[in-house]
Amino acid sequence: MRTAKNLARHELIGLRVQIEHSPDPTLVGLRGVVVDETKNTFRVQTPRGEKIVPKDDNRFVFYLEDGTPCVIDGRRIRFRPEDRIKKVKG
Fold first, then answer.
1. C-alpha to C-alpha distance for 72 and 84, rounded to whole angstroms
2. How far, in whole angstroms, is CA 72 from its chain's centroid?
3. CB atoms inside a 10 Å sphere around CB 70
4. Are 39 and 79 in contact (CB under 8 A)?
């Protein structure tokens, strides 16, 4: 079960996400649903189409199924999705 404490070790595709902080001001506040993930990026479906968002240097707010927000720094999850379970602590 996904919780705010263990979210970084779970599947992120399908979750609602918002970019809380980014060195690119055009990305701050971007909202949508994660539709794909690579080692370095998320593909986010927004009302205006898909955007590819780098993980590095961005801070994300993921919303669990019950609406609980969970803040994760992109550097913490900069792994291939299948490797994250082994490499991410906590």
1. 13
2. 7
3. 18
4. yes
